[in-house]
Amino acid sequence: MAQKLHNVPLFPLSGHVLPGGSMRLKIFEPRYLRMVREACGQEPSGLIAMAMLNNKGEVAHNTHIHPLATLANIVDFEQRDDGLLGITVQGVQACQLHTITTDDDGLRRGTVVPIEHWPRAALSPEHQHLVDGLRHVYQEYPELGMSTDDSGFAHADWVCLRWLEILPIDAEVKQQLLQTDTCTPALHYLSELVQASEQSQ
């Protein structure tokens, strides 16, 4: 079993970052400003867990946070024009959340176990529309911070993770897809979803 990491700061969001992805965030709540300061002062530096919100759970019992999360590094900072702190996080590895505690200011921390995710898988020509569509999204929305030339475009697992980050799919569905042994179920699900969207335009 992978070594447990204790007291990892949790950042539950409606937006999602998964292994291999990145996200730009603005930080304004005091608890998350403290999270950034503490995370960047510890080893490994800048490590937090990006978690998905569960709208069926209860905040009081921390069941509003889904158990499958992403260990992420804070890799960049900026002072935004609006005066807020901007950070960029990069997804490193999937992890399972166990015990969750709450600090006095509302910052959640968790015991996390890093887990191996989907094995690398080649992308077949029949799913080229997923690559083309993803490149188009990244070109249209450069603020997502993802390159259209990333080597990951050749791999079905990477492409699926990127689509799961950006599509407005219910977090519970994402959790179910991410807990499968391979990316094949997600690949079929996303292929049908993207094709249906393209045909309706």
From TrEMBL:
Listed InterPro entries: Lon_prtase_N (IPR003111), Lon_prtase_N_sf (IPR046336), PUA-like_sf (IPR015947)
Domain Lon N-terminal, residue spans: 7-196
Alphabetized Pfam families for the sequence: LON_substr_bdg
Descriptive protein name: Peptidase S16
Organism of this sequence: Pseudidiomarina sediminum
